[in-house]
Each structure stands twice: as C-alpha cells, then as structure tokens.
Amino acid sequence: KNQVEQSPQSLIILEGKNCTLQCNYTVSPFSNLRWYKQDTGRGPVSLTIMTFSENTKSNRRYTATLDADTKQSSLHITASQLSDSASYICVVSNTDKLIFGTGTRLQVFP
Amino acid sequence: EAQVTQNPRYLITVTGKKLTVTCSQNMNHEYMSWYRQDPGLGLRQIYYSMNVEVTDKGDVPEGYKVSRKEKRNFPLILESPSPNQTSLYFCASSLSGGGGQPQHFGDGTRLSIL
Question: Which positions in chain B touch A45 (Cβ < 8 Å)?
Fold first, then answer.
C-alpha cells in the first residue's frame, strides 16, 4: 500500500535552534518527493522537490535530503525563526498519484 | 498576482442544503484538484481534473460533485451536505498532473455542516 509517514507529529523548538523533520514512504513506483509548508489559515506552499537522482537540495535555510534506497527524506531547518512555525507536509508522487503525509506541526518560540 | 481563489472562506450551513464552493485560478493551469483536510488525516483528494471537461475521482469522492466547463474554474458541489463533510477544503492547481509541477493551493474554505 502506498503510504507516507512523517515524524514527529509535532515539535517545539526555541528560536535560533536547528531541527530535522522526517518522512518515510512506501510508494512505488517513485516519481518525486516534495515538501510543502502550510502556515496556519493558509494553503500549503511548495518548498522543494526531490527526484530519484538527487540526494540533497537547499532552499535558503531549508535543506532536504533523499535516500531512495531506504525510502526516507528529511527536511532540516537551520537557525529557526518565528516565521518557521507551520505544518510541514511531505508528498510523494508515483506516476499518476500524489500521496500525502499527515504533516509535522512545528512551533518556534522566542 | 498568480493565485487560486476560493469562495466562500467560511460557511456554516445545515444538513441537506445544497452548496457550492467556487475555485478559480489565473495561471492557465491544466490540472486542478480538490482536497479536504481533517485533523490527523492530512490532505485527502476528493476529485481532480486533468483538463477542461475531464474530471476523475480521488480518494474520497462520495457526496461530492465537480465540473470543469472552463479552464480557470473548478467548483465543488455538495448536493446534500451531511455533518461528516464538516472539514477544511482546499482547491489546488498546477501546470500538469503527476506531481512534477508544484501545486498552488487556495487559502481554504472551512465548512461546518450542522
């Protein structure tokens, strides 16, 4: 069964600290993996996309990794800011369907 | 500004009273989709459309209808709403389906069915 699991469900960190969010998937065939950020009261916004051949990709303070062998991805946030408080959703696509994770709720406190 | 616009943003209504949630995009996208988001379940796809006049069921289509008469519009219709359809709904569009292009989401419609 195609599934995407994210951990932790929720996370609280202090401003300025780093954190890593995890995404494990059992999707076949694999096409790509995308991380979305969803602010409270808004729709999700794409942060980055990982294809099969990519191991690491950075977008400002966000760094996504992909291990296609173990079917795991992570999203690392460096020097967190209050504006990073949001839900982060991992979405894996096979050739014709998107499979959504349930998200990680991140709260950054001053 | 490139955007996906949903209306209304909030709606409280009663069981059985037909309602329509509109969705419009100004990016000339081929692909449009509707999702519902419930606590602990994440985003689940209701219906999607690969192009004008082409629609297909997603994972949770029961109780919903859609139409795609024009490229920019993709309304979601609840013919006889029930309380289990109380949820947060998102419309999204992308250049094409399959996940290769990022989806652009509207800001959501919170529906409460009493």
Answer: 105
